[in-house]
Specification:
alpha+beta
């Protein structure tokens, strides 16, 4: 298997729709290993795990959750486009993944991967990388994991990977250092730096999203605030430790002495986009799709409510969310311009240049 390829990209003579590009990527991902999970190759989301599947046999548990979510999202689109056989193949593959993924349960959390020789990674028996954040968070985000296991996996994540005193949410722990199973280039980073056991903010945001999906609004909001870069520079001591600007997201924050709390790769990360999405779409619960405006908050119970102004094409939507029962979640009622609309369906959006009022009442 080729681990690195340096080429000058060329424009293909073949063209296709955006859907076909996505569909071919999904079709290409359907190969599985001995445990029924997607092949990891020379890295999945964590490209530093570059030797786990280098021989073509290693499998990624995280990619199983992620791929299931992608297949579930694209199968209906394929069906609508008249791609029935493709949609059925994707649905069948997703069913197989759901079964295989549960075999990666390690007792209190899910494994991260299997090496080429079948050795599990991310187990409580591992001295290094005994737990990995994204295998737990995506068990929840995908909606596939058994509910009791999903909740336990996130409780384990909180116990082992959240360091509130240091304002860190680690990607894995303990870091790679002396393991005989070489995971790849990730081990080239000193323990506690970047992907090797530091806070990788992209992954940390997925953890916040997962807590919100479990309905833990207080926890999700508290962790979101902990990850907010401004809260890493509140005192001169904080500034001296952080060493990067406090008004942009950092890709990573170091977790081991003597560099605990030092930020890295600011201005150069997709974490900022995920921070915005988690804050607005997951916690405040305001999201737009083709179907319309979705409102599904998961906020702290103590909040009496909040408001959001949404600009959509030529229109504006003034959204007010009330939390009278201090549950912080569960939509009981919605009105659009004073008229009740179904609380379980997206609110229809109109491109009419007007300002519309949306009022949302959460459950008691």
């Amino acid at each position: 298997m080729v681990s690195d390829r340096f080429v000058l990209p060329e424009i293909s003579e073949e063209d296709a729709t955006l859907f076909e590009h996505c569909a071919r990527a999904l079709d290409h991902s359907l190969a599985i290993g001995r445990h029924g999970l997607p092949l990891m190759g020379t890295g999945d989301w964590n490209d530093g795990m570059s030797r786990i599947g280098e021989a073509g046999q290693g499998e990624s548990v995280w990619l199983g959750w992620f791929l299931h979510a992608a297949l579930a999202a694209f199968a209906p689109i394929a069906a609508v486009r008249g791609e029935g056989p493709r949609a059925e193949a994707w649905r069948a593959h997703a069913q197989g993944l759901a079964t295989a993924l549960e075999t990666a349960w390690d007792g209190e959390w899910y494994l991260r991967a299997y090496d080429d020789d079948g050795t599990p990674l991310g187990s409580h028996t591992d001295a290094e990388c005994s737990i990995d954040a994204i295998a737990q968070s995506w068990a929840v985000i995908s909606g596939v994991a058994q509910p009791a296991r999903a909740a336990q996996a996130m409780a384990s994540l909180e116990q082992h990977l959240v360091r509130r005193a240091e304002k860190l949410l680690l990607v894995l722990d303990p870091p790679f250092d002396k393991t005989a199973h070489d995971p790849g280039s990730i081990k080239g980073y000193p323990p506690g730096l970047r992907e090797n056991g530091g806070q990788y903010t992209h992954a940390a945001m997925w953890s916040v999203m997962a807590f919100a999906r479990l309905g833990a609004g207080d926890k999700a909001a508290a962790l979101f605030a902990m990850l907010n870069p401004i809260n890493h520079a509140l005192t001169p001591a904080d500034v001296a430790a952080y060493q990067v600007v406090p008004y942009v997201a950092t890709a990573d924050i170091y977790s081991t002495a003597p560099h605990v709390g030092r930020g890295g790769w600011s201005w150069y990360t997709g974490s900022a986009g995920w921070m915005q999405r988690v804050g607005i779409e997951t916690i405040l619960g305001v999201r737009i799709s083709v179907a319309g405006l979705h409102i599904a908050p998961c906020v702290p119970a103590a909040w009496p409510g909040y408001s959001v102004t949404l600009a959509w094409r030529s229109s504006r939507y003034a959204i007010t969310v009330e939390n009278p029962g201090h549950t912080g979640k569960g939509v009981a009622a919605i009105t659009l311009d004073g008229v009740a609309v179904p609380a379980t369906a997206p609110v229809a959006l109109a491109d009419d240049g007007a300002t519309h009022e949306v009022r949302v009442t959460l459950q008691h």
